[in-house]
Every structure is written in C-alpha cells, then in structure tokens.
Amino acid sequence: MDKTLAIAANTFREAIRDRVLYLLLGFALLMIGSSIFLSLLTVGSREKIIIDLGLSAISLFGVLTAIFIGVGLVFKEIDRKTIYTIVTKPVGRAQFILGKYLGLVMTLSVNLVVMTIGFYLLLAYEGAAYARLLPAVGLTLLELIVVTALAILFSSFSTPILSALLTLGAYLVGQLSWSLRLLQDRLDPGIGRAVCEFFYWVLPNLWRFNIRAEVTHAVPVPPAEVGLAVVYGLAYAALLVFIACLCFERRDFK
Amino acid sequence: MAVLEISGISKSFTTHLSLGRTRVLNGVDLTVEAGEVFGLLGANGAGKTTTLKTAVGLLRPEQGSVRLFGMPITDVRARARLGFLPEQPYFYDYLTGREFLDFYARLCGIAPSRRAARVAEMLARVGLEDRADRPLRKFSKGMVQRVGLAQALINEPDLVILDEPMSGLDPIGRREFRDIILELRRHGKTVLFSSHILADAEAICDRVAILRGGKVAACGRLDSMLSDRVRFWEATLSRVDPAALGVPHEKVWQRGERVAVRIQSADHVDALIEEVRRLGGTLRSLVRHRRTLEDLFLGEVGYEAPEKPKTPAPEMPPIPERRG
After folding, report:
1. Are B76 and B109 in contact (CB under 8 A)?
2. CB B44 within 8 A of CB B66
3. Contact between B10 and B64 (Cβ < 8 Å)
4. How far is CA B324 from the centre of its chain?
5. pLDDT tens-digit profile of A196-253?
6. Backbone phi and psi for residue B207, each to the nearest 5 degrees, phi listed first
7. In principle, which of A143, A248, B135, B229 could form an S-S bond with B291, CB 3.0–4.6 Å?
8. Cβ atoms of residues B181 and B210 within 8 Å
9. What residues have CB less than 8 Å from A112, skipping those under 6 apart?
10. Sign of the C-alpha dihedral, residues A37, A40, A45, A47?
11. Which residues on adjacent β-strands are paired with residue B41?
12. CB of B205 closer than 8 Å to CB of B197
C-alpha cells in the first residue's frame, strides 16, 4: 500500500507543480466571484442565483480539471518513458494505476476544498446562509471520482485526445442517462427495452450526484438517496479502475 | 548460477497504420551468469533494446520465456533484485534529485528510517551530492544519466540492466560509468548492458553476445573470442630484400631500406627470424595482430568494407632513417 501511496503522492506533487491547475483554479474562482455581478443582472432571488452559479462553477471546473489532467496521467508516463523505471521496480501495474488515480483524486479534493472555501467567503460577504450546501459539494466530489475513473480507464488504452473526447462524451451522456428510463417506459416489452436497461446500467448515472437544484431551492433531499448515490459512485469508480488495471496489465511499452 | 535466462524469445511490432508486422526478435537465447559483466552488442536495429525491454518485463514475448533469478519477470520478488536504466532516460523533471531518489526508494520498499541515508549514499556514489536539491529539469544530460544510475542501484540489486548507458556521454562521463560498472562487479553484482561503443565493451565485459537481425550471431567469453584468433604477424625489417626471404610472406610496404612483411602462421615466426639473420638484416619489430572486437563485430553483423579504388595509390615518399 505504501508503494501505491508513494505514486499517489508523486502524482499529487506533479499536479500542484503544474501551471494548468492554477489556471483552471483561477478561472473557477473568477467565475464563482462573477456570480455576484450576474445575480444583479437577473430577476429573482439573488442568493439562489449566487448559490446555483457557484455550485455549477465548482462542478464544471472540477470536471474540466479531472478530464484535463486525467487523460494525460498515464499517457504522459508512457510517452516520456518515465514508466520504464516504475514498472520494473517491485511495483505491480495495478498499484501504479491505483496510485495515479488516488493522486488525482487527492488533487481534485484539494481543488474542491479551495473552491468551496472561496465560495463560502463570497457567501459570507453577501451575508447568505450556507450550512446546507455541503451535501451538494460532497456529491460533486463523488462525481469527480467517477469522471476521473472514466478518464483513467480511457487513457489506459488510447491517446489523450481520444480519451478526452470519450470522457467528455461519457460525462454528457451520464448527465442524461435518466432519460433512458423514460424511454424504456414508452417502449413495448422486447429487445428495445432490454437495450435501454443495459445502457442504463452500463453508462454512468452522473445525474445522481447533482442535487444542486434541490439545495438552491431548499428542497429536502432524502438521506437514503444521498447514501445510494455515495455507494453507487464508489462502486462504479472502483469497477472502472479495476477494468483500467486489467487493460494496463496486458500492455506493451514500446 | 544463471541470473537471467532468456530462451527463444520472439517479438514483432505492427508497422505504421497496422498494415503489417515487423519481426524484431527472432528466437533470442541468452544466459547471464551471476557476477559477470555481460555486453549485448549489435548494430542499430539489431534488437538490443527490444531484448532488454523484454528481459525487464516492459514487453511480453510472443514466444519463448524470460526467467529472472529462476522466477518469471511478472513476479515482484524477481524485480526486487533488479535495477534498470533505460536508454536516454527521462525522469520527473519537477522533482529534485533527492525527492526523485526518495520516491524510488519508497517504490523499492526501503524502510522510512533507512531511506534518507540510502538516498544520500547514492547521491554521493554518483557524485551529485552538491546538486541534490536542484530540480531535475536543470540537470545536464550526464547528470540525468548519473541520477538514473542511482535509481537503478537504490535497492542494491543483484542484477543491473543498462540500455546504452554510455551513449551521449563525454569521455570523462564514460570513464566514470565504466568505473562504476567495474565496482559493481567487484561487489559481486551482475551487470548486463547494451552498447554499440565497442571500446567500452572490450574494456569491461567478461562475455559478450552480438545480435544480428533479431538473433544471437555470436556469444562467448571475450578473451577466448579474441585471443584465439590471431589474424597475422607483421614484421618490420631493414636491409633485407623481401624477395630473398625463404618464408611464405606478403609485402605490406617499403620505405627506403625498411620493409614490412606479413606472415599468416605462427609456425613461420622462428623461420622468419632465422632468415633475417642469415641475410644479414635487422628485425626492427614483430607484432601479433589479434582479432579485435571491431573485426569480430563487423564480421558478425555482416559488414563488408567498401571496395578499394582500382587506381593504385601514389607511392609514399621514403622516410629518411634516423641514424645515431
């Protein structure tokens, strides 16, 4: 486990010494800050608009960071041949993938904490109530855990550009996969329904992690639903990382 | 005892656009014994790097097998006793030398209490202790190579595999690398390295294998491969008419009263000396020309020297003999 943690710590160190991270973080904070001005331009409750925009900015920039850094995570190691000296040490390939994954999750968590602190400072400045926001931020972290797992899975067998497109595609589909259930209800029993059922289970149900609207409008979210989302997110990410390890185990490093 | 056994490995790669496959290794057999320095030689594209990458588990052979310390390479216990430095290595350049080695020490499972001392020892060994806290991106090529060697040795491996370790280094760097390899041998370690710099191989190897077209074309102890094969003897004589010599020979050059002749057989050496005495001449020198590693190498890789120009070269002016 220490070897996996060593790789994770190194991945974290690489990310925090990379300027791209600060650029994205800077943009995120700027966007969270700009929600004050945007709330002036729109009709409605100022506080709700600030919360909605802020939480969306946190999620969006978190996902962008996960994709940007995640798809290059393994590819860069192979392209620059740094992996040659890692997998020839007494380190399993699965430990390597898991270490890279945990390192990025660690980076994204710190990122999320910084963005959330920025957001809270803004809300404090505005004098808004913010105690109920944490479940939404927590589920955003779970969403990032799944998106990072998608990025690392795709990057374990393809190029960064293709991986980025696949991850982005999976992210967008994952936001809308609830509609497969609607479609299923309208179809007659048969192959069409089975296909819908299959894709509903295979595709990531990322909408489960989005309780931003409920939080913004102070609609209570049943704890069981949040609990289910947590279990689902962790299990789904674990499965993706497991498949990534299997793909990586068979790979040649030319 | 065999440290590394490579038996009949074959490997091919898909060509551009996956239209076909190029066979790079074609049944390579190699055995590296404990405590020896083994040189893997071959022209560019002969399959040296592919052989080494297969030996350390970066590539999987299509046929054949690799056993490291009697275990498959996928076994982490085998890799715990291995050190590897790839060709033209590139490392995490955002790390300092010390952070870099500490990371590798952790990967090798060295206990936290011993890690700092081990890292400092390795930095001193490769002469980088005063640059230890500089990021790797500010290192010169030679320094990257040295810190690369340090990561290969951090776990005190029994077998060290180095891919073209001396290419791109200046003569001082090469000398230092050679000294480190010899020091490893003195400590009972086994070293396998690939090179196309024959002088380095000739200076430090116990055994060599020459790869050609993805196969081992020659393999053996360097001293027996070379000393068994005296190519010819060359004698420089003065005041002797070579035509009068009663020994089979070949005239190489003549400058004034000096003449160089070549004899092919050791049996004729004594006869030649007798003949020179009989004719009242002087034997100035007698040199045994051994087969060099370069001759062996060029022969095994199938190199043919370009044909000499047909027009005779102008005769060299005689060099006046110094008297007194």
Report:
1. no
2. no
3. yes
4. 45
5. 888 888 888 888 888 888 888 878 888 888 899 999 999 999 999 999 999 888 888 8
6. -135, 155
7. B229
8. no
9. A58, A62, A137, A140, A141, A144
10. positive
11. B195, B210
12. no
Express each pLDDT in B23-64 by its tens digit: 888 889 999 999 999 999 888 888 899 999 999 999 999 999
B258-263 sheet: strands from edge to edge: B250-255, B258-263, B230-238, B282-290
Identify residue A76 by its one-letter amino acid code: K
The one-letter amino acid at A234: L
- Chain B residues whose beta carbon lies within 8 Å of the beta carbon of residue A80: 90
Contacts of A91 in chain B (CB under 8 A): 76, 79, 107
| Comparison of pLDDT for B266 and B286, the residue scoring more | B286
**In angstroms, what CA-CA distances link B162 with A61, A68, A147, B62, B82?**
44, 35, 39, 23, 11
**Confidence band (pLDDT; 50, 70, 90) for A125?**
confident
Distance separating alpha carbons of residues B5 and A251, to the nearest angstrom: 22
- List of residues 6+ apart from A90 with CB closer than 8 A: A3, B76, B77, B79, B80, B107, B108, B109, B155
What are the chain B neighbours of A14 within 8 Å (beta carbons)? 92, 94
pLDDT in tens, B213-251: 888 888 888 777 776 667 788 999 999 888 888 888 888
Give the pairing type, strands B63-68 and B159-163: unpaired
Give the model's confidence band at B301: pLDDT under 50 very low, under 70 low, under 90 confident, else very high. low
* Spatial contact of A12 and B95, defined as CB atoms under 8 Å apart: no
All domains in chain B, ordered by first residue: 2-222 (3.40.50.300), 229-300 (3.30.70)
SS3 labels along A8-59: HHHHHHHHHCCHHHHHHHHHHHHHHHHHHHHHHHCCCCHHHHHHHHHHHHHH
pLDDT of residue B39: 92
Structure token digits, residue B321: 């003999």
Which neighbouring-strand residues pair with B9? B28
Instruction: Measure the N-to-C terminal CA separation of chain A; round to a whole number of Å.
Output: 28
* Nearest by Cα to A119 from A192, A72, A56: A56
Which of B140-144's residues contact partners 24+ apart within 8 Å by CB, and which partners? Answer: B141/B168, B141/B169, B142/B169, B142/B170, B142/B173, B144/B89, B144/B90, B144/B91
With tokens 């486990």, the residue in question is A1
Asked if ipTM goes beyond 0.90, one says no
- Which uninterrupted H or E stretch holds B231? strand B230-238
